[in-house]
Each structure stands twice: as C-alpha cells, then as structure tokens.
Specification:
By secondary structure, this protein is of the alpha+beta class. It has seven helices and eight strands.
C-alpha cells in the first residue's frame, strides 16, 4: 500500500466516524426506542443492517420482547459512516466485539460471526496479516491498560477517541454486557461521553426514557465509573472499505 493510499484510508475512516456519530445523534433526536417504534423504522433497520434479522428487522410480535440491541445500534452507526458492511455481525455480542478487535485471539461466541480472511486485490489474505503489513492494526485496550492510562499524571488524549467501541461491565466482575461508541473524550477532566442504544437515560428534551438511544457520561475520576469500563477497541482504517471478508 502506497503512502498516499494509507493517508486516504485514514482520512476516509475519520470522515466515516464523523458520519457514524452524526447518525447516532440523529437517532437520539428522533427518539429511537423500543416503546416508540414504527414498523420498518430505525430499530428495524438496525436489526437488518447488523445481520441479526436481515430480512424482517424486529418482529412486532416477539413473545419475550426485543433482544438486546446495543451492538446492533453501534454497528449500524458505523456502517452508516462507511464501515465495511461485511463486519456487521462482529458486534452482536460483547464477546464478538472483543474477538473483532483482537483478531480472534480473545473471547468469542459463534465463530461464524468472526471474519478472518479478506479478498485484497483478488487474493485471499488473513486480515491480521494484511493490517499488520500495512501498519494499520486494530487496537484493543483491556481494563488494566485503561486504568494504567487513567493513572498517568499528564492528560492522555489517545486513551479514547471518537468512534472507539467501549464495552461496559455493569457488575464489575470482568464480564462485559453492554456495547457503546465513544462520542468524545476529555483527557483533562477524564470525562467520557458515549452514544448508546438499548439504554435508559434522558431523551433530547431531558425526559427519562428506557430501551432507547441516549448519550451517556462517565466520570473516570470516580471509582464507580472506572470499575465498569471493561475495555475499548479502535478500528483499523482498512476496516473502512469494501473488500469482501469472511
């Protein structure tokens, strides 16, 4: 890959992340939730785009309610920005997310959701080798590395970045159960803001909502918020393309 191609890929990723976050914000202002959901609306689109229910979206008559859709929301936002749609099933479970950012070396559920081979210039290529050779690896920070980053005396602006995918561990027992995308990170105040689907919070008018798209705030100077951050991943610029992957 030439230097110009590398620059172009990085620029495309940054532009794509901006579009993805704009889609999340649009969904927030539109009040996307389980309770206010027209058939064929945005929530259905999230389920189709994510590959969870590619033809019908969310059934209107599910006996046990709507499945957890935080990951469907995140990947639908990324794809709206130009993230490779081949990776749509990589965010259906927290284990899938961790496997995606570590190239399958960490926890995984349903191996069929994990893509390890890409077709690059007509040649089957291991994704990890392709990314490594181009110097554009995905990044994964586990809880220990995030805590180390928070402990530095100087502000750490690279600890999180817009578009990073952060897993939340509500119990604090090292078992992530929620998927979010970073809206912004203030390395001085150590405040992390995220866009989240399938979450309780406040809507755009400041009214309490549940099972909705909301913006959340984590003050990582507090022990309570630090203990629930499980880990975070950053995509590769090579993930923002249209190479076939499987």
């Amino acid at each position: 890959m030439s230097a110009k191609q590398s620059v172009d890929r990085r620029a495309a990723m940054l532009a794509g992340i901006a579009l993805a976050l704009r889609q999340a914000e649009d969904d927030f202002h539109a009040g996307v939730s389980e309770t206010e959901r027209p058939e064929g609306g945005r929530l259905d689109t999230m389920f189709r785009v994510s590959g969870y229910s590619p033809f019908t979206g969310v059934s209107q008559h599910m006996a046990h309610g709507v499945p957890e859709w935080c990951g469907m929301a995140v990947v639908s936002w990324l794809i709206a920005g130009g993230f490779n749609p081949c990776f749509n099933t990589s965010f259906l479970h927290t284990f899938n997310v961790e496997a995606f950012f570590t190239y399958g070396t960490r926890r995984m559920v349903n191996r069929r959701r994990h893509d390890s081979i890409a077709i690059v210039d007509g040649v089957e290529t291991p994704i990890v080798g392709w990314h490594r050779g181009a110097g554009m690896m995905r990044r994964w920070l586990d809880r220990a590395r995030i805590l180390d980053g928070l402990a530095t005396v100087e502000p750490n602006p690279d600890l999180f970045a817009p578009g990073d995918v952060v897993l939340i561990d509500w119990s604090g027992r090292n078992d992530a159960d929620h998927i979010t995308i970073v809206r912004d990170w203030d390395p001085v105040t150590k405040v992390l803001r995220t866009w989240e689907g399938n979450r309780s919070g406040l809507d755009a008018a400041g009214r309490p909502v549940r099972d909705a798209v909301v913006c959340c705030r984590y003050d990582l100077t507090t022990a309570a918020d630090r203990r629930i951050i499980y880990g975070g991943g950053r995509t590769s610029p090579l993930d923002w393309g249209h190479e076939e992957a499987r």
